[in-house]
Amino acid sequence: MKIGYKLAAEAFGPAELVRQTQRAEAVGFDFVEISDHFHPWLDNQGHSPFAWTVLGAIAERTERIGLATGVTCPTVRYHPAVIAQAAATLALLSDGRFTLGVGSGERLNEHVVGREFPAVRARHAMLREALEIIRLLWRGGYRSYDGRYLSLEDARVFDLPDEPPPIAVAASGPPSARIAAELGDGLFATEDKPEIVRRYAEAGGAGPKYAEVPVAWAPDEHTAAKAVHETTRWALTGWKVMSELPNPVNFAAATTTVTEQDVAQKFACGPDPARYVAAARGFADAGFDHLVMQNAGPDPDGFLDFYAAELAGPLSELTPGTPT
Fold first, then answer.
1. What is the pLDDT of residues 258-314, one digit of tens each?
2. How far apart are CA 225 and CA 58, in angstroms?
3. How far apart are the first and last CA of the chain?
4. 58 lies in a domain?
5. Is 106 a known active-site residue?
6. Choosing from 10, 25, 33, 106, which is the catalytic residue?
7. Contact indicator for 306, 217 with CB cutoff of 8 Å
8. Which of 146, 173, 318, 320 could cysteine-pair with 289, CB 3.0–4.6 Å?
9. Which CATH number characterizes residue 277's domain?
10. What is the pLDDT of residues 203-262, one digit of tens each?
11. How many CA atoms lie within 13 A of 227 on its CB side?
12. Domain membership of residue 165 as a residue range
């Protein structure tokens, strides 16, 4: 089992994210995963730096820890040619430590460029085309592509690593799980649903399977749940809501009825390591083998110390299950 640390780019500035990664490497995390947003989910989170600049700084200031985007949408705000170039550059700077996590995106981040945010079926078709373009460019040479949604004209990525970075594709159901199996090297998910892993395997997927485990460390459960409620209650809205709302104010309005008790049921809150291991085990039993600790507590250093002292051993000893 590989254990990762979530870099919450909506909650911290760029220098702090680099510092947290250095600490995560020091306490033994296998990799970090950074969200790639233009807006935060809620205004009071207060941040949203450019993920690729942060990753470049991290690559130069760390030695061992793996890096991943969790996840990048390579279709609207970015053209896939730009992501192909960015990922290749980061793979070189990190000496092969980078994994490109991709997904079909959220209106929250993609509408900012003034283009229509399409319906989910079109988003999946666009993601397929984007992945085909990225892989085409990583083959080297000048390349062109004519798709229904995306095109490429005489483009070449000049700086390519010897081995392209692996691509993990975000999935929440059968269509996206098929894309992950057919065009990706791994799977990415945010829910502990065995059927996502099963669908991925049935479609031929055999790569690493990433999932985010919602946790919140604080010296007591109430303080942890209060922090989640203040900054991360959007996580309870569900993917159909999370992908469609355009701005932080809309997420604030959509979560007015969410309570601290609600978030405490979804997040492992407080100082009891058994709750964290139980939450992680749910994802391991579902078949995931790369678990990302998504800490929404108020004290990141306290959580990193807690991980080193209480969680590193038990979490690394979890065994991924085989979903049926």
1. 999 999 999 999 999 999 999 999 999 999 999 999 999 999 999 999 999 999 999
2. 30
3. 20
4. yes
5. yes
6. 106
7. yes
8. 320
9. 3.20.20.30
10. 999 999 999 999 999 999 999 999 999 999 999 999 889 999 999 999 999 999 999 999
11. 21
12. 2-214+272-316
Query: Is the Cβ–Cβ distance between 246 and 108 less than 8 Å?
Result: yes
Pairing of strands 167-170, 186-189: parallel
Alpha-carbon distance values, 280 to 87, 162, 220, 292 (Å): 29, 35, 20, 9
Q: What is the dihedral of CA 111, 107, 178, 278, to 10 degrees?
A: 140
Reply yes or no on whether the pLDDT at 322 is more than 90: no
* Calpha distance 29→64 (Å, rounded): 10
8 Å CB contact between 319 and 284: yes
- The helix/strand/coil state of 271 is coil
Asked if residue 73 is part of any domain, the answer here is: yes
Measured CA angle at 234 (ends 233, 235), to 5 deg? 85
> Strand 66-69 vs strand 31-34: parallel, antiparallel, or unpaired?
parallel
Placement of tokens 């909506």 in the chain:
10
In this prediction, residue 323 carries a pLDDT of 79
From 37, 39, 111, 290, the catalytic residue = 37
The helix-helix angle for 120-138 and 80-93 (nearest 10°) equals 50
Query: Taking the complete model, does pTM exceed 0.85, yes or no?
Result: yes
Mean pLDDT of all residues in the chain? 97
What is the total residue count of the chain? Answer: 324
Kindly tell me the burial class for residue 87, based on how many C-beta atoms sit within 10 Å of its own C-beta (0-12, 13-18, 19 or more): buried
Has residue 258 been placed in a domain?
Answer: no
Question: How many domains is the chain built from?
Answer: 1
User: Do 295 and 217 form a contact (C-beta atoms < 8 A)?
Assistant: yes
Which residues pair with residue 173 across a beta bridge?
Answer: none
pLDDT per position as a tens digit, 101-137:
999 999 999 999 999 999 999 999 999 999 999 999 9
H-only helix segments in 28-170:
51-61, 80-93, 107-110, 120-138
Q: Give residue-wise pLDDT tens across range 84-97.
A: 999 999 999 999 99
**How far does Cα 323 stand from its chain's mean position?**
22
